[in-house]
Amino acid sequence: MMRLDYLSWDEYFMGVAKLSAMRSKDPVTQVGACIINTDKRIVGIGYNGLPMGCQDDLFPWGNEGEIAQTKYPYVVHAEANAILNATTTLKEATIYVTLFPCHECVKLIIQSGIREIIYETNKETKSTIHEAALRMLEAAGVSHRQVRTGRLTYESVS
Fold this sequence. Notes:
Layout: H1 9-21, E1 32-36, E2 42-47, H2 78-84, E3 94-99, H3 103-112, E4 116-121, H4 128-140, E5 143-146
Parallel strand pairs: 3-4, 4-5
Antiparallel strand pairs: 1-2, 1-3
């Protein structure tokens, strides 16, 4: 008899996104992304971090103060890294991400051809920027849904 407690596809691919997030050097927010094609094959992964060639210890990782002294102008988001790391076209692909994408990443997701976003947490539900992201997703016909993967624990956002 086959075992019945195996991981669902959502748990599996979100697990890959969570594992990717663990590569982030960000002390506050670690985000991971995993892109799959229509055959359920991984075609891109990423996490939030500095661009290639930029040494992690030479840039700020804080989130308060003058903008140039924070992480914000330097960090590439997990979704952008996963798209840039993709090994093939992303037409009709699905992205699993540990945190709902920001409005800038939503633009990249739409433009890349990804048709579905599956996320675990969302910390910006009340902002006008989040509303803009949702408006773009609806207009572009990109679906999104939240999943809870209780068997795989991970501290993603504070």
